[in-house]
């Protein structure tokens, strides 16, 4: 009877330990999902903000009702694109070097909990905060190494958008020079046209003067 009671007690303890283990694992998983949700929202809102500002710039550049010259418009667009690139770099830093490190720390805590279940049941060691704190000082075994650190989905997401912004920035800079050349060409053409008109007017005046002189001389001769 006593052996049976001891066996029941061991089963109850094991059951309670399994329930506690599962609850702890679930709480770790919830923390990791929370960090993952923050990262997803950060990226979605960032790409949405960049797209909205790019659309506003496009509308601004295509506005033909403005009396301001195109060179000035492209200057404003270039400055705005430069600020957008700085904004995108800051989002990259916030994502990869802060939020992603929080996520990696939580993921590493889950992996350790899953791989060392027996040790956990013996020690009851909770180290989620320790893993998150370590994530800012080191890289874990489950994280990509070498070239995979650069060529992965997270990094490529930021690289692709940055390339698009950089190309647009270069095009905007080239358009400033093009508009200035067109402006100089138009100014030169205007000056040449005015000069030709002036020469024509002077020539016409001289012809009229010569005609008047000849006319006067003819009348004097008749007299």
Quickly list its features:
mainly alpha; rod-shaped
> How much of the residues is beta strand, in percent?
under 5%
Distance between the termini: 163 Å
Number of helices: 5
* Class computed from helices, strands and strand pairing: mainly alpha
Order of helices and strands: HHHHH
Average of per-residue pLDDT values: 78
Rg, nearest Å: 39 Å
Overall 3D geometry? rod-shaped
What is the total number of structural domains? 1
Largest β sheet strand count, sense and barrel closure: none
Total strand segments: 0
Low-confidence stretches: none
* Helix content range: over 70%
Question: What is the element layout, followed by pairings?
Answer:
Layout: H1 2-61, H2 70-115, H3 117-123, H4 128-135, H5 153-222
Helix pairs in contact: 1-2, 2-4, 2-5
Mind explaining what this structure looks like?
The protein contains five helices and no strands. The protein is mainly alpha-helical and 223 residues long. The protein is rod-shaped and about 130 Å long.
Summarize the structure.
With 223 residues, the protein is mainly alpha-helical.
